[in-house]
């Protein structure tokens, strides 16, 4: 016979721990967190820089300090955690197959499951960069772990491709450890990281950022000798004659994060093509009732504080689902959220307007940089809510609160779009 628990949380990072704690506080005490690493904390354990916790704890913490706060919350509640435990698959019937050195392979049934597996970096193989495969090419996160956890320096002369937050932070980290960061090249005409990281990690250290540039060749057979950087046009195609050679022994790739959803796919959960995360409703429930998703497995967040807040809602909603056995007060009335002009995606993707009782965090990212614009949420030709912005950028997630009383009488889809001008 398979084991059975009330709530299974897959992933022991900030999302998994926050979700487990919130579910416990909502009355579901039979919770198990499954973490494949040997300790809780997830990626935060290698993020020794500060800047975490300003929203959640109203103070500035390092990544391990932020993780320690939630580890303490989990311990205080006596929540059962199984580390060194790899979840291999999930079934639509909410059975998980997990393997560990201590207990072997088991099948465990659950009343509800919360997906909190986080995300992974986009590797070189997904970038189609021409050239050999010499030693010295790392993703930024791998380099971060080597330096911060293993005490190993990847190299001394560094070029970074991609201006995501991890790449920007590693530009500063490599500099502080004595390396020379020659430049950060970014394919897009805008940075992929937060403005504060550009200032604190590049500008403060005199590290150049070249927008609309990419690596077009990698030199070196056994060890990296250098890279060729070229300017690109509006379609991302390299412009002939703009090539520049940079001698280096290390190339760091910070070219985006991908939600880790192999388990979601194995369960048959519907995936949003724009986010690579599950399609969810306002309860963070996926296309399979009783399986919830939160954090970077759902969509990539800017700040871990937002991950924890979202995971808390997932934990409370999962607890309510278990207590109510999935029933709802009224006959469902499902309304779709449609990304309109200038919007890449929305989370959630649907809203049950007949059963919504709490404020809904409508989160989304824009497609481009828009200055002096208005964010407009509308339905049936009427504006539900609008918000003026001096600037919106793809690297910063937008958040609009929809209150239940705004959603009465909506029959058609809800559209979220950007209107330029007027600010």
Notes on the protein architecture:
By secondary structure, the chain is an alpha/beta fold. The protein has three domains: about 1-120 and about 255-325, 3-Layer(bba) Sandwich (FAD/NAD(P)-binding domain), CATH 3.50.50.60; about 125-255, FAD/NAD(P)-binding domain, CATH 3.50.50.60; about 330-423, Immunoglobulin-like (Sandwich), CATH 2.60.40. About 20% of the residues lie in helices and about 35% in strands. It contains seven helices and 29 strands. Strands 1, 2, 5, 6, 7, 8 and 21 form a seven-stranded mixed sheet that branches. It has a five-stranded parallel sheet with strand order 10-17-11-12-13. Strands 24-22-29-26-27 form a five-stranded mixed sheet, with no helix packed on it. The chain is globular and about 65 Å long.
Key terms for this structure?
single chain, 423 residues, alpha/beta, FAD/NAD(P)-binding domain, Immunoglobulin-like, seven-stranded mixed beta sheet, globular
Could you say which overall geometry the principal axes of the C-alpha atoms support?
A: globular
The CATH architecture term of the largest domain is 3-Layer(bba) Sandwich
The amount of helix comes to: 10-25%
The domain tally reads: 3
Mean pLDDT: 94
Count the E strands. Answer: 29
The N- and C-terminal alpha carbons lie at a distance of: 63 Å
User: What is the structural class?
Assistant: alpha/beta
As for the CATH topology of the largest domain, it is FAD/NAD(P)-binding domain
Question: Which class of the largest domain in CATH terms?
Answer: Alpha Beta
- The name of the CATH superfamily of the largest domain reads FAD/NAD(P)-binding domain
Strand content: 35-45%
Q: Can you summarize the main beta sheet?
A: 7 strands, mixed
Radius of gyration: 23 Å
> Which regions have little confidence, pLDDT < 50, spanning 5+ residues?
none
- Helical segment count: 7
């Amino acid at each position: 016979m398979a084991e059975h628990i009330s709530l299974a949380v897959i992933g022991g990072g900030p999302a998994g721990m926050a979700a487990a704690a919130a579910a416990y506080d909502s009355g579901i005490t039979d919770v198990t967190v499954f973490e494949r690493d040997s300790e809780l904390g997830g990626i935060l354990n290698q993020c020794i820089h500060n800047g975490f916790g300003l929203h959640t704890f109203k103070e500035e913490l390092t990544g391990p300090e932020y993780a320690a706060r939630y580890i303490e919350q989990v311990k205080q509640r006596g929540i059962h955690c199984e580390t060194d435990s790899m979840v291999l698959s999930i079934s639509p019937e909410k059975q998980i197959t997990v393997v560990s050195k201590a207990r072997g392979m088991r099948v465990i049934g659950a009343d509800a499951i919360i997906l909190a597996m986080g995300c992974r970096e986009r590797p070189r193989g997904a970038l189609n960069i021409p050239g050999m495969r010499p030693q010295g090419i790392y993703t930024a996160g791998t380099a971060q772990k080597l330096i911060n956890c293993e005490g190993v320096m990847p190299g001394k002369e560094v070029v970074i491709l991609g201006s995501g937050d991890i790449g920007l932070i590693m530009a500063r980290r490599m500099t502080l450890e004595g390396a020379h960061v020659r430049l950060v090249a970014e394919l897009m005409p805008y940075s992929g990281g937060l403005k504060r990281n550009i200032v604190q990690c590049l500008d403060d250290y005199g590290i150049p950022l070249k927008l609309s540039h990419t690596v077009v060749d990698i030199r070196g057979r056994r060890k990296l000798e250098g890279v060729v950087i070229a300017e690109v046009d509006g379609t991302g195609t390299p412009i002939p004659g703009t090539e520049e050679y940079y001698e280096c022994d290390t190339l760091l790739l910070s070219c985006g994060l991908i939600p880790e959803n192999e388990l979601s796919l194995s369960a048959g959960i519907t995936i949003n093509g724009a986010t690579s995360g599950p399609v969810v409703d306002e309860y963070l429930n996926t296309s399979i009732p009783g399986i919830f998703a939160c954090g970077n497995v759902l969509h990539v967040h800017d700040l871990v504080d937002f991950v924890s807040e979202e995971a808390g809602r997932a934990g409370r909603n999962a607890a309510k689902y278990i207590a109510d056995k999935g029933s709802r007060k009224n006959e469902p009335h499902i309304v779709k959220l449609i990304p309109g002009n200038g919007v890449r995606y929305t989370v959630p993707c649907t809203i049950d307007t007949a059963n919504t009782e709490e404020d809904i965090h409508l989160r989304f990212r824009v497609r481009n940089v828009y200055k002096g614009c208005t964010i407009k949420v509308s339905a049936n030709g009427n504006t539900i809510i609008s918000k003026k912005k001096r600037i919106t950028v793809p690297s910063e997630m937008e958040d609009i609160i929809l209150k239940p009383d705004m959603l009465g009488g909506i029959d058609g889809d809800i559209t979220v779009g950007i209107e330029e001008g007027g600010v």
